[in-house]
Amino acid sequence: FTLKDIALANAFRYARDVMPRSFLGPQLSPRPQDIGLDKWQGTPEENATLLKIAMQQMGAAIVGIVELNEQTRKLIYSIDNDGKRIVFDNVAQAYEDDEKRVIPFSAHSAIVYAVQMSDIGMKRAPTKIAQMTTSESYQRGLMIQNNVQEFLRGLGYQGLGEAVQNGLGIAPAFAVLGGLGELSRLNRVITPEFGPMVRLFKLITDLPLAPDKPIDAGIARFCRTC
Questions:
Q1: pLDDT over threshold 90, residue 20
Q2: How far apart are CA 198 and CA 190, in angstroms?
Q3: Predicted structure pTM score
């Protein structure tokens, strides 16, 4: 590879690796009580619209909401990618210690979002240009996570994200349940808008949100006879 190829790939790879990533988020934005206000109150439908518009401004291509219940909580890992346990408990605030990450049962929603990848870059696989495309997508996903966690904090709610890359839970399953796309024989989620050219991420929140439903865009039906 040429020097310019390597420089472009490393610009995203190393910048991504030093960006902060945490379960609880940066926790830097003032909360409503810090500035003498009550927390945001809206209907689940209003909140979902608000969140999706905000996340689109942050760079998310598609956003879906999945209700966390007895069944869908099984899609959250018991052991995270760094070895810490993830547990649900009857606590008011999420917390983390040396052994576990604790999610309140009051956090009823999983937010799943897609970052669009560059088809121009991926068409150049396997090269440093394609590698850059993947690294850039993960970098953008992490930046969005930090933004959303701070946005939710500013509204008076909790945003619990991936403490490690691809951590917390099964992103493709949440993407299907949240209506972002369908599973395929490609072994990827395929979206109607961007095909499989997306990276998927997820967060958990106690902000009341109206859930989305799975879609039938004909993708899985096409795969059965393809």
A1: no
A2: 8
A3: 0.92
